[in-house]
Amino acid sequence: MQIKDITVSTYNANYRYGTYSMSHGRLAKGQKSIVVRIRSDDGFEGWAETAPLGSDYLASLYTGELAAIQELGAQLLGLDPRSPEAICNVMDQAMLGAYAAKAVIDMACWDILGKSLRLPTATLLGGCLTGNPKAFSVIGIRDPDAAVKKVQDELAKGAVTMY
């Protein structure tokens, strides 16, 4: 099995509850997300997504990760996507950093490996530890009364972890 092609698409992932306020007066309404599809020569497809939070939040930049994915992808054509360690070694030799770009390619390769073995990717990575994974809710920076109200609303919906 060999990587035949890697395609990249993007979309705007807008925040469900509108504007998110962070420290230092930073505001965000969403972020750009990158979706990668890796196709093998025998018809398997692996999919993965990364959504770099932006250079005002993390040391990861959407345009940089997008460019890195495109540059790294060219180096991976013809390699076996079922060999994640070999893929990671090639990416590390080709480029320092670009961790979100490398991670999304890595996960798409794990997806192909799982599909080729007819196993869920989670099983390959050690198995599901819970049948009911928890998500977190973000309170954001707001005045204290509004924050208390948001926490109460989220608790009523069943949230157990909040930031």
TrEMBL record:
Coiled coil is among the record's keywords: no
Keyword Magnesium attached: yes
PROSITE patterns: PUA
Keywords: Magnesium, Metal-binding
Entries under Pfam families matching the protein: MR_MLE_N
Cofactor(s) it depends on: Mg(2+)
Domain Mandelate racemase/muconate lactonizing enzyme N-terminal: 21-126
Gene Ontology molecular function, alphabetical: catalytic activity; metal ion binding
Superkingdom of the source species: Eukaryota
Family: Belongs to the mandelate racemase/muconate lactonizing enzyme family.
Name of this protein: Mandelate racemase/muconate lactonizing enzyme N-terminal domain-containing protein
Source organism of this protein record: Fusarium torreyae
